[in-house]
Amino acid sequence: FGSALDGLAAGAVGGGMVACTRLYDILNVAPSASASEVKAAYRLLARTLHPDKCSDPEAKVKFQKLQEAYDVLRDADKRKAYDATGSAGGLDLEDLLSYVNRHRTQLTPADIDNFGTAYLGSAEERKHVLAFVKEKNGVVTRLLDYIMLSKPQDVERYIELVEELVSDGSVPAEMHGAVRRSVPKLRLRAKKQEEQNRAEAEILRAAAGKKTPVASGDPMAELRAKMAANAARRCEAINQSLEHAASDESRQSGKPKDAKRRKV
For residue range 145-154, what is the model confidence (pLDDT) as tens digits? Predict the structure, then answer.
């Protein structure tokens, strides 16, 4: 995943100046990274640096420091203050960055593709769709934004899955009305997303045929930002699933359940 997040950082460049970039360097994102990009990057590091996964004797202390660093960037007010002053509440950012860089791991595109092949249509995907429906009290309008590897052209498959979950009683009866009302909105949202994807692809093809570079501030800047956001959602969904899997493995292995995992 290192290469994927490097791409996100490169695609997100363009925000305002900050007093210090070390917190962003630790998470491997640009200072202009969105909240979802910051969240995805933290989850990646949490998977590899958690004391249950990392054998380094400093793992517990450093993981706590990583959580403190993430707390600064996840909170809009704290992040704004950090951007202005470069102060992160006394954290030794240079030391933490050095530790994180020593322990970063990378997943290749092939790893992600193999994961996707196993995930789509699986019981795990079904579980995640059900969890989303329940969390949103039956409103499925933004389902494709939250289910990893989903594509707008697959919307009918997801609608069928939701309808199955309603029919077999998995979705509580009090949510059925919200499901019915929001399904047309889900279809409309998927249609608009598919149209947008086609338009973006046309812009990319047109730009690829030009001999002169695209100037800063033109429509391509918006396109890159949108693509970075889409990639961030994909990374976030995959990281969340892998994080859940790691948690399941930990419980099955008999490890204590009071390990300090913070919900993000």
Answer: 777 667 889 9
Segment 166-170 long-range contacts (CB within 8 Å, at least 24 positions apart): 170/130
Segment 93-141, tens digit of pLDDT: 888 888 888 777 655 556 556 666 877 888 988 998 999 999 999 999 9
Burial state string for 236-249 with b = 16 or more CB within 10 A and e = fewer than 16: bbbbbbbbeebbee
Whose tokens are 């595109």? That residue is 109
Measure Cα distances from 157 to 35, 116, 145 in Å: 29, 16, 15
- In the structure encoding, which two tokens stand for residue 222, read together? 């918006």
Residue 208: burial class (beta carbons within 10 Å; 0-12, 13-18, 19+): exposed
For tokens 């309603």, name the residue: 166
Distance, in Å, from the CA atom of 64 to the CA atom of 50, rounded to the nearest integer, reads 9
**Calpha distance 158→150 (Å, rounded):** 9
Q: Which token pair is 190?
A: 């998927």
Distance CA 234, CA 145 (A): 9
